[in-house]
Amino acid sequence: MPSLIALVTRLSKPAEEAWLTSLRAAMPAETILPIGDMSGAELERAEIAIVANPDPADLNRLPNLKWVQSLWAGVERLVLELEGFAPPIVRLIDPRLAETMAEAVLAWTLYLSRDMPAYGAQQRDRVWKQLPYRAARDTRVGLLGLGELGSAAAEKLLLAGFDVAGWSRTARELPEIRTFSGAQGLDEMLSQSDILVCLLPLTAETTGLLGTRQFERLPEGAGFINFARGKIVRTDDLMAALDKGRLKHAVLDVFETEPLEEGSPLWSHPGITVLPHISAPTNQSTAAKIAAANIAAFRASGMLPDGIDFARGY
Fold this sequence. Notes:
The structure is a single chain. By secondary structure, the chain is an alpha/beta fold. The chain has two domains: 4-94 and 282-301, Rossmann fold (3-Layer(aba) Sandwich); 97-274, Rossmann fold. It contains eleven helices and twelve strands. Strand 3, helix 3 (56-59) and strand 4 form a beta-alpha-beta unit. It is elongated.
């Protein structure tokens, strides 16, 4: 009897149904069932689970599970909640996601470099005043993270004419950009970044990485964009840097708690643009096709795909 695929999520019912439709369309030969609809016998037949923010207790109901396909690129919640989980967990690697993130990095870098926050404030105050123009070639952008997302963002920024540098935990080289690594390299890149963009994964090493010391290293009046994870930034230190004028403006798309609480001071801070986690949404169609390809490869070879490294955190 063929095995089943369990869909395990903590999404709303309509969102889960939409994913179910896309996944079934991408692999019509497979039987995919939401775990809440599965009988005891069906739970035993499931060898693969496709997950989106799964409840660990639900995964533990699948005694013959061989591996897990995540529908998200970020896996820090899985690492946190599934410590000690044995079957491999495969994160989504979608070139479309990198392209979408690169578009967002370019858009919001231009937003800062062309002083859009200042012009927005002037409009609210009915002030007609032209601010000095700074060309892209005269704007130094530092990227934290040079994986799939950082590499795609660097390429997009270079095409727009920005002066681009990048930092990664271990040494990496990319065409046409200055690259840095390690603690000393981080300090060096920060000192040369008029706009800092964070695209790092959340790990034990990156949690709380950006605080007062790092913001002080940036040139005075620098801009900051966080499209990574909220816990990488010490929020109080960020607000203090903005209040002191050390930073000019910050664009935040990610937060320690999401949705951002109504009472958060970030909503009303004049130096902060709040976005509702929209920098790189998962494309349902392409994600379903990538999951289908991974499952087809497993069916053909029986080889388990490479899973995330719990020690590294991604």
